[in-house]
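Narrative summary of target 7.
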Amino acid sequence: MSRPWRRTAHGERVPLGKRIPGGQDGRRMLVVSFVDRVGSGLWGATAALYFTYAAGLGTAEIGLLLGVSGAVGIAGPPLGGALADRVPLRPLLIVVQLVRAVASLALLTTTDLRLLLAIASLGSLGDRASSVLTKLYATRVAGPDRARYQAINRTAANTGWAVGGLIAAAALTSGSLTVYRWLLIGDALSFVASALITLGCAEPPSATRVVATSCPRAAKPDEGPRETAPRTPPPSPWRDRGYLTFTATEAVLFLDDSVFKIGLPLWAATATDAPHQLVPLLLVLNNVLVVLFQVPMARFGATPHTARATLRPLAGAFLLGGAALAASTTGATWLAVAALVLAATAFTVAEMLHATISWELSVALAPPRAQGAYLGVHGLAQAVQRSIGPLAVTAAIAAGPLGWLGFGAGLAAMCGAQRHLVRDRGDGALSVAPVTVSEH
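Modeled conformation, tokenized:
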């Protein structure tokens, strides 16, 4: 009896049992993403409360602590990506996870602001570097089916966030200071567990670490194949003006993150007649939609050409989201609720589409021999968004309904600009303009 098959986005036939790209290592990294995000859910929901009640910091001190550590963390993606092109990825990822665990536990040892700044900055560097290294591992292990893997990975990560947040919410009902410390310990243990799971994974193939099958000097019987570095230096993303411009457009398109974290809650509470209880339900709606539909939407980024074409519906989703927020201030309460639900749904669709597009294009436009360095630079987009995002959405709120219309239109225009920037070369590949500056 023949075994049932399915076709991948590239037309390849694979057994139905192999639904997760990357085989056993791919499945293990999904567990890593889930465990990591459970810890992040424990800590992310309670960090400000811990620094207030357990560490005894004031509001201004907490703002300084989070702001400075976040700024230092911007260096994490390019640093991690550059290292990944020079050393094996698996042990590097393990070391970064252990650094995050040490930084989390070290926060328990002091209430001195200067020491907390240093520790939190180290943890922020590790967090941002880990995100890029995990993406790079997934890219290498999943191969051409990376779009589907990314979608499954986001589903696992969002589920982990939800589980961690629910545990934190339940734990905080005790009202004890000790619970904050235990939640922080739980965050650290999630990093240790992630490192241990990664330890069981194999080193993924990399164009920057070429295994030589033959060489001038004969290998000894007890020696395996030797790794040799490419003779010519790999291209630098810092000299690739096209890729840097692409990354700049990405920083704008990632603003949907700030919409859900800051813009939507503040707008619903201060500018509409919707009940305040709706705000957490909108965030739950976002999480549920991602878990249910991120994998089916992977087909919109199955190839570089498909990802580029999907920038048009992405622009439409941004426009609809901005218009719905603008409309939420008019009419009765039920109309405000309906408009806010529509806005949350539209921006969630935009989030899922952009996640798929961003993953595929960031990899497709990166030279294989410098993939780590390029993806590290691309990781700056999310880091920069976390700095400019709050300013952008609060400016939209201050401008009123017209501000949200302009916000949606601006994101839609950026989709058009990116589509123009990412060009079809006509030979089955994409490129970015202008051309890369020569290294020599």
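The first strand starts at residue 5 and ends at 7.
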